[in-house]
Amino acid sequence: MVAKVFIDGEAGTTGLVIRDMLGARADVEIVSIASDKRKDNDAKKELMAGVDVVVLCLPDDAAKTAVALMDDMGEAAPRVLDASTAHRVAAGWDYGFAELEAGQAGKIAAAKRVANPGCYATGAIALLRPLVDAGVLPPDFPVTINAVSGYSGGGKSMIAAYEKREAPDFELYALGLEHKHMAEIQRYSRLDRRALFVPSVADFRQGMLVSIPLHLELLPGAPTADVLEEALRARYGENGCVRVVGVTKDGGKLEPQALNDTNRMELRVFGNRERRQAVLVARLDNLGKGASGAAVQNLELMLGLAARTPAATR
Hints:
Blueprint: E1 3-8, H1 13-23, E2 28-31, H2 41-48, E3 53-56, H3 60-71, E4 79-82, E5 94-95, H4 104-110, E6 113-115, H5 119-133, E7 144-150, H6 155-163, E8 170-172, H7 182-189, E9 196-202, E10 208-215, H8 225-236, E11 242-244, E12 265-272, E13 277-284, H9 288-303
Parallel strand pairs: 1-2, 1-3, 3-4, 4-6, 5-6, 7-9, 11-12
Antiparallel strand pairs: 7-10, 8-9, 10-13, 12-13
Helix pairs in contact: 1-9, 4-9, 5-7, 5-8
């Protein structure tokens, strides 16, 4: 059986990559709306009624409008996967991070509405949630999250600025400490205390590193870096899209682009036993596991399709 998918916002960065990933599949048909009908609610409702899943690759307000449109359709409404920030902590939505905990993939498979995670949030939650669940990291611990992303995560205007060489090579941003991913990071990491998050963007198209420094002597029982790594391994195992990678003892370097065009994420714990310090690091593609790749993984679960997303897309 061929599943029908409508990508509302398919011309945007995330939508284009989703379309590219699905386009080579024989088990999915991508349904599009005529450009002159994109704001015609009746035409959009008619199209939505004939598909299995609608994927929203829209700004938050537009995503809310599209969901309201589907609410009006009642039982004729399709299932929906929202790649915006609008519904990630909203009631009635399942969070689309399949590796979050045991049973999460099953929840996504059965869900009527799924919210795709944010790119930074994916890395941060993957590192923090297993440690909180294992009791290694208290929920009220003062956590600091640093991250760097390729410029493709900033949308069309940022992409244009970098590709025209009008943007700086590197910059911190969201220094008002109100980044839109914070709500989902706090909720799905199970943190009681709001983390300090300092994101940045650099002059490369895609790729991401999320890092969390820790003073180990301030954690209960003063665990070693090995204890933290074992808690991550216990959660994610050895297979799947999320993998824990052991580190060498040579001081360590890590670049952000090695997983580009895949739906994989690597987690590492760098530690200094003498200084009783550690740094947790997640590496992923902000357009892969951080956006479009995760969306396709969620679609595979929702539609019962064969999983193909861990492999490179080109």
